Amino acid sequence: MQALLDGNEAVARVAYALNEVIAIYPITPASSMGEWADAWAAEKRPNLWGTVPSVIEMQSEAGAAGAVHGALQTGSLATTFTASQGLLLMIPNMYKIAGELTPTVFHVAARTIATHALSIFGDHSDVMAARATGWAMLCSASVQEAHDFALIAQAATLESRVPFLHFFDGFRTSHEIANVTLLEDDQLRAMIDPELVFDHRSRALTPDHPVLRGTAQNPDVFFQARERANPFYRDCVEVVVETMERFATKAGRTYAPYEYTGAPDAERAIVAMGSACETIDETVDALGEKVGLVKVRLYRPFDPKRFAACLPPTVRAIAVLDRTKEPGSVGEPLYLDVVTALREAGREMPVIVGGRFGLSSKELTPAMVKGVFDELKAERPRNHFSVGIRDDVTHNSIDYDPDFAIEREDVVRALFYGLGSDGTVGANKNSCKIIGDAGRYAQGYFVYDSKKSGAMTVSHLRFGPRPIRAPYLIEHAAFVACHHPSLVGRVDVLEHLADGGTFLFNGSEIPESLHAGLAAKRARVFAIDASRVARDCGMGNRINTIMQVAFFACSKVMPFEEALDAICNAARKSYAHKGAAVVEKNLKAIDATLANLHEVTITAAAAPLPPEAGLDLLAMLLANRGDELPVSAMPCDGTFPTSTARYEKRNLAQALPVWEAAACIQCGKCAMVCPHAAIRIKAYDEALIGNAPATFKSLRPMHKDWSGLAYTIQVAPEDCTGCTICVDVCPARSKTHPEQQALVMQPQAPLLDAERANWEFFLGLPE
Amino acid sequence: MQALLDGNEAVARVAYALNEVIAIYPITPASSMGEWADAWAAEKRPNLWGTVPSVIEMQSEAGAAGAVHGALQTGSLATTFTASQGLLLMIPNMYKIAGELTPTVFHVAARTIATHALSIFGDHSDVMAARATGWAMLCSASVQEAHDFALIAQAATLESRVPFLHFFDGFRTSHEIANVTLLEDDQLRAMIDPELVFDHRSRALTPDHPVLRGTAQNPDVFFQARERANPFYRDCVEVVVETMERFATKAGRTYAPYEYTGAPDAERAIVAMGSACETIDETVDALGEKVGLVKVRLYRPFDPKRFAACLPPTVRAIAVLDRTKEPGSVGEPLYLDVVTALREAGREMPVIVGGRFGLSSKELTPAMVKGVFDELKAERPRNHFSVGIRDDVTHNSIDYDPDFAIEREDVVRALFYGLGSDGTVGANKNSCKIIGDAGRYAQGYFVYDSKKSGAMTVSHLRFGPRPIRAPYLIEHAAFVACHHPSLVGRVDVLEHLADGGTFLFNGSEIPESLHAGLAAKRARVFAIDASRVARDCGMGNRINTIMQVAFFACSKVMPFEEALDAICNAARKSYAHKGAAVVEKNLKAIDATLANLHEVTITAAAAPLPPEAGLDLLAMLLANRGDELPVSAMPCDGTFPTSTARYEKRNLAQALPVWEAAACIQCGKCAMVCPHAAIRIKAYDEALIGNAPATFKSLRPMHKDWSGLAYTIQVAPEDCTGCTICVDVCPARSKTHPEQQALVMQPQAPLLDAERANWEFFLGLPE
Lengths: 767, 767
Hints:
The structure is a homodimer. By secondary structure, chain A is of the alpha/beta class. Chain A is about 35% helix and about 20% strand. Chain A has 24 helices and 28 strands. Chain A has a 9-stranded mixed β-sheet, sandwiched between helices. In chain A, strands 3-2-4-5-7-6-13 form a 7-stranded mixed β-sheet, sandwiched between helices. In chain A, helix 11 packs across helix 14, helix 17 runs antiparallel to helix 20 and helix 18 runs antiparallel to helix 19. The termini of chain A are far apart. The model of chain A has no long low-confidence stretch (mean pLDDT about 95). Chains A and B meet through helix 4, helix 5, strand 9, helix 9 and helix 10 of A and helix 4, helix 5, strand 9, helix 9 and helix 10 of B.
């Protein structure tokens, strides 16, 4: 069965089906694996053996690892999900779980470990920090592999008794939605040998046949005991090979621990792990040169012989790409392993270099991959390079042509700029499903700002006739939608619009600032005032369905009538439980969309302005242009100036709370509860009012200590997010004049200039 | 100034002098560094700048690392001490401390990480688990180096801004006492640049000049920021080199990050870290072959060029010895680094192999070192070998001739078998001091069982005319003392007695079982009933001073009169605060020792019996013969049978509590408080007494529910440790008959057989 789901769900489905105890603690980007498991347990979904797994949230990842360790020792099948610092907290238990040869799989959505800064994004620094624990490590490169390897790891751990860390790239794989061929229960059952489960149970600590495990050992025997486990590691690779072969017969998908793709007579090769393999693989195909890729799936135990054997004999130069950085080391871990493995296998070659890429979800594009292959042409290629950034400090970065691209014409690429919580991402996931159901392959990837709600989201959608293997952001989109007028000016929404592409804008008219760019790209331009349509249809701020319809209407990604049917059906299904009226509103909004969507003709003479040059670090960050910054622009130790939030007026509110002074009882609650500190109160000398802007309001204060002063409650219009908490708590709301309130939400746009002036004046008043 | 101290104290002295905040949490074998710091702070000892460091014990090592991280960010000089799992808990903070380029030194007494079993002993598995954190790692090989490197690390971290993990072998270096040339305050001052301290302070987080540090970064800039720290790591090695050179001019001891010793035209070389370097170095000297050693002091940043440059051009085969095991890896970490470093430096050679040694304080002797060098003579030496054990499972271990030894004739080697808490270790430390004060070099190493109090201790003492560089246990001792008769039979106290050596026994006569062995070794034998002498002199069980005097009298390690003076002075000094009477007792005991010590003539025809063969795993462990066990004897996953404590009757009590039934009020407290569950109570059918041994006691029970039954309180004579807690809590002690007690301590020996029989009978009674 095909389904469209993200990597976390793809893994959680298998892990849930194959375990009895699931101890969890949430950490981005692994959280949703635990959330799925928790939700399924709550609805009593059974695992493969018909029992409902115990899902327990612990007090930290250390507790989760301890709970799993304990459960395993009772003979249960147990697992957990984690990333980054969470994985670090599990390391002490992991050494013991491995030392005791206990079968289990931990699923890790690999994420950066915090160093000079925290990052919630993806790289391999966390799993590499666990590579000394004695765990097998199996790496997935795609959502389908993550789904499949969750099973392969479980089957292999039961047979080998070596615990498995199954990892995949945080966000890139954990959060990408893609078409997956789901494993059926009978396939799971065919892969999990009940005898091996029984063997695991028979090793349990139980009063019925007690044994002693977890002793203290002294110098006399510890070393011998540690070497006693050697046969299990020696045999583990063979177990993985056989498990993968068995998997191929049951599921029809073929994997190997080390897999070469590319020219059979390749002279240059890249070695890599994780989602980058998809990009490199496609680039190798597109280049058509004597190049190739070795995908490392089984990182531990690392088998030098099998690794070397899969390399064509013609290869004379290798670049090993590590998605981690270990300052002070001779080289990053995969590089060290490859150098040593090739030496031991007698397959040394003139050039083996190591490079770093993709730290903290930095992109690895086909252009960068080509850059690496080009570097390998040199007689003495740079070693310990970085790729994807410009290092103007230690000059380790390699050059590449950023315009090189390999994406095929028959893949539709669409970009959607929205705001967190505005429904854009949800609607796009639904669009992927509609297109997927129509028989095409879909990929959805959603770039969130770590500021979450109210921050920008960019949805990257690809649709094509074959599986999408492009785990990098879209650079040339045939379709771009801007779901929120306020994003214009904050980000260059046209940057990735392809020449001749389609641009869809939510707003009554296209902002002037976009005209030159749209004209230069010869774009077809559509506009709809979706916010107004939504209000008119009684849907408040919910523009997602409207913009979704508009997308299908403009983009022609599939026959529009089919898409419309699907959207209408989805609306009926999604909102049925909210009653017929809500369904009706949505269907009405769909009709209204078609009535209001219109094409706009842009004629502009002026060329678009180039981006402003010479911005400082903070200005570049705020302009969403951090990717352009070279290494020298960054502080060496993560230190920044303070008080810079004032340069980042997010101006998110669609509506502002307006102070109706007459109704105010001066309780001060609104200022107290505002989570953004965007409402403040002052009492000040009445005489100062003389200089106030015309719309500035004030009252006589009620409190007798303040007699002779004036009293003002003022909203900071660009800091307010329009969340309405202040309005909700206002006790003047339901008092003697129910038609009045002391705070009323009103549309922001007409108020903005006046309220800005009022806020300026208010700030100048004495405290 | 010279002093005799252990590695932990040697390090703590420097760390204390150079820091302001010391956050600690105790873990073996690092605890005493924190204990010293805590004690010095309590007595208000100032650091180098005249302030008393804040020493804070946190709730765990995670807390200690967090507290240090916080203190560093306030501009304080801060440190901590740890090992093993404690270091694992510090890793998350370590990544951040390094990422923020914060100067600090953590001092680690390297210890095994728990895997199939916990171990409190030493290897490098803990520090290797931290090698990805971006810390510099500096390794000391001896007590003197640990003292010196604590300073060098602090000076280098302030200059380089890279934090330093300074490590040395747990127990072997942390607990070995050795002669150390102490660093004077003016030497410390000369090495610590006040400008650099000021620089560190100026980077503090303070409201006076606020900065923002520890932000969240996104994919746009994280990678660039991470690479921004490259220059600090590039320069760090040079900083260490210069710091070591400056140290040489100030302190006269010369070090380099990578140091070669051995034949200038060596063909075979070993690469190693830690105390093993001392053994290998001495073995290289003794062998006089074309062999050499590269000592790795600076493990991170690892400098391939400097490393390669120190190797003679003639070397064609290298064995890299790692004191850790990473199952599933291509090879252990130092081996990977050396293979890659030599390749990068263009210094590849026909043979580079890796081997594991010394896990969990397993010995590395000169014989094993020779075994490694011999293996390197082969055209294809074994790779990934182990040395020091016999691996009959995966056959990775290399052979060596265990009789090969290199210890010089002018070094006195003495072994003392004692019991934990009997004063033997303290007396031996004092003997080292006496001999050290007399101008000879001393080394003391004390092997404790992890069972602690009441378990066997073996003191290994060496004395010689030059610094002792033999960080391994004594195998051939000119002097052996057995301080406790009960040890005979539990351990082969003669095993390491050299031919023609001296044997000193605490007891009125030499046990029969030793005669053959002593005769075969043509030993001079001395005996003294030290326990009786101690009692006669009113010193209770304290035999330590008596045995110390006897040692100097028999061993002739220095002129006896001098030693006697020193012992008398030490007794006067040590016991002065306890009053003149205690001093007098000690002096009397010293006189009594000389009066009672006598030489014994042994004549035995029978050859000593060879050790029993074919013992099973547990029997071998109990016989202290675990070192002889091959790999196949060990369980693969740390699993043992239960209920085996009964095979290990420790029989420690010198005195047993005897039940004076007539005085007993049957309260049951004695059984309740016994920490070893060695006192138990039963009420049973009176008729059963008919079969009791003659000395078995019983009472009519006071409780009316038990009328018609008999009541017995019985001591398990071989489980009792003689701790007297039962006697102390007995409420019948001070009742109507103060001359009577319900429990009275009496010497064990005459009671043992009868009480054994009573306990047997008691066990058979129904519950």
